Write a sequence for this structure.
């Protein structure tokens, strides 16, 4: 892992964020306060709505530059995509005018397919790999609060952590200036599967049982159910050529670190009547299970109940 504090000596780089929900707000607030050149790309409908109702992060109004990209706009240096998977296709379409030869796109979505999807649209050299992990943010309209406990894992597909690529190193400098904790993994595909396993375990279990993290910790039935979900995920990972013996341990450790009163983003979506990301969790496991001709009954049960 690379998490080294450095002097911010790079030329100013324009960062564009797409998706100003709970995760996007964490980045937007930190980058704004660090005076990093920053734009928020929105479709025309959200441009009107967000202009009238600006982001309030931890009870502080954050003034941001909102815009709808057009071919007249200069390319962005870095584009952070922080949408839910359900909005990802429209986000990729929205940023097309902002992607130049040297632009780096960092999808920070859940799941294991967002980088591959972006590579089917843009030059694969434009795409970085990454994800956000941390305590769950609470959201009420444009009011978002978060305790700051989070990390960004990112990099090229494979990384020399002592000497990363220039693009990765510059983004690391930007995150350092904004006090955004981050690390660079040698093998980002394996790292993505680790986060995926955590999502499969925590998001789906809390949603299935309609319990917050504290209630899950106290429920042997829920813990056993979560372990079965993880076992199915590990099986699929191995069939896909991913070998990480720490997956189950890290998923359980992540549960222990979550605040008892919090609940997962998936459970928040269900309680708010929003569309969930079930298709990129259990749905993905089931698609891969069919590919390898194996059964995944617990993820199938999740789909039956939550779909």
């Amino acid at each position: 892992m690379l998490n080294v504090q450095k002097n911010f000596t790079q030329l100013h780089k324009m960062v564009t964020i797409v998706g100003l929900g709970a995760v996007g707000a964490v980045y937007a607030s930190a980058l704004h306060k660090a005076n990093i050149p920053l734009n928020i790309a929105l479709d025309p409908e959200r441009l009107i709505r967000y202009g009238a109702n600006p982001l309030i992060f931890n009870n502080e109004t954050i003034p941001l530059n909102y815009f709808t990209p057009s071919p007249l706009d200069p390319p962005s240096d870095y584009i952070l995509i922080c949408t839910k998977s359900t909005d990802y296709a429209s986000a990729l379409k929205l940023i097309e005018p902002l992607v130049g030869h040297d632009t780096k796109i960092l999808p920070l979505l859940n799941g294991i397919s967002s980088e591959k999807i972006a590579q089917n649209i843009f030059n694969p050299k434009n795409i970085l790999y990454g994800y956000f992990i941390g305590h769950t943010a609470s959201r009420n309209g444009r009011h978002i609060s978060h305790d700051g406990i989070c990390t960004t894992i990112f990099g090229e597909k494979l990384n020399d952590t002592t000497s990363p690529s220039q693009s990765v190193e510059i983004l690391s400098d930007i995150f350092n200036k904004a006090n955004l904790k981050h690390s660079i993994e040698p093998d980002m595909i394996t790292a993505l599967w680790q986060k995926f396993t955590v999502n499969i375990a925590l998001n789906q279990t809390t949603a299935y049982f309609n319990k917050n993290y504290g209630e899950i910790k106290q429920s042997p039935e829920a813990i056993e159910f979560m372990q079965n979900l993880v076992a199915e995920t590990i099986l699929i990972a191995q069939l896909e050529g991913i070998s990480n013996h720490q997956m189950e341990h890290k998923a359980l450790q992540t549960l222990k670190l979550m605040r008892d009163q919090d609940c997962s983003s998936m459970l928040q979506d269900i309680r708010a009547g929003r569309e969930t990301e079930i298709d990129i969790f259990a749905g993905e496991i089931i698609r891969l299970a069919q590919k390898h001709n194996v059964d995944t009954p617990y993820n199938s049960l999740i789909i039956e109940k939550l779909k």
Residues 188-209 form the longest helix (22 residues). Residues 2 and 161 are 6 Å apart (CA to CA). The chain has a mean pLDDT of 92.
